[in-house]
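Q: Here's a chain of 408 amino acids. Please give me its 3D structure as tokens.
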Amino acid sequence: MNALYNLGISLYSLAVKVAALRNRKARLMAEGQAQTFARLAAEIDSTASYIWIHVSSLGEFEQGRPLIEMIKRHNPDRKILLTFFSSSGYETCKNYPLADVICYLPFDRRANARRLLDAVKVEKAIFVKYEFWGNYLEELRRRDIPTYIISAIFRPTQAFFKPWGGMFRKMLNCYTRLFVQDEESRVLLEGIGVTNVDVYGDTRFDRVTDILDNHVDLPIIESFSRGSFTLFVGSSWEPDEEFLIPYFNSHPEFKMVLAPHELGKDRVEGIIQKLKRPYALYTKTSPEEAADVDCMIIDCFGILSKSYRFATVAYVGGGFGVGIHNINEAAVYGIPVVFGPKYQKFKEARDLIALEGAFTVANGNEYAAILNRMLSDGDYLKRHGEIAGRYIKDNLGATQRIFDKIGF
């Protein structure tokens, strides 16, 4: 990559080190990257070749996971190296049993790319959705290692399609094949001369269907929601809660499960202080106690996607900030989904809004109007939920298509 790109990576690395002095996530990333090569030396089997799968964070892991599981199901002896960029993804998934080695990906410097590929015999490299790291990609191409990106989606606003985006377009030429979610992405890529593209869809549809088909017992959530109209709020941020909680406080005709995106002690305490109805913390209650409260705060990771089956309606957070979180996890259960206004980057959100299986709100008044209708009109609720569930079923199969095309 050119000097400007490498300077940008160096400045990014420096910014993380500075942020690590006060920010826990940045500190975990810096410390984790510092341990990567020692971990590879200790854990990599030098006699084996590895399929390297790289994801940014938890959301991208959920897209890569169906492919990992299909590879292991068909070829249980194949070795998987799984790398993360963000601490939130790594810390949540560091004990994932189907990956043979899990670590942070060091910053995208030429020396790091060469060192990683010297340490691991990579037979195939698979990046998920948005991961474009120029030095790693160039080193993979230099070594003739087949390299793919899956569940990718492209928009006209991205650097690849700008007049000044030549160095970013160069990255795309390093992929053996690009598997994109939609036809719009294929057309955009064709317009800049990238034609090694297949429109194979999004593997997240397969992932949420796996969760649906393999549910686990959750007696606390089941007891809490039994017989009640239950709103599930997934991955909420404070701007979401500014209108969600007041509405809940003034509407005793429904219950609410609230799973905040971040679980620090101060964050959870801040939610509790705003509640005016009986609540319980998931990790500190029992099924018997859960039945007698109105709000259940999910104060742990790992159960939200499995819990949506008890929901009547879902609200998915992030739409007033970084962008909405995973709406497919809720829609697969055949319930309508509501979220904030920053959803345009997500094809499934655009599709579901067009089909009326999902609704977007820009403020508390719009949210109240939708919830009032759902609380009072059972037929309306059922009809829009069925649309959401049908949409998920209509979009299955990306994982199998990718698996067959790559060839494992």
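Q: Can you summarize the key feature?
A: Residues 343 and 349 are 6 Å apart (CA to CA).
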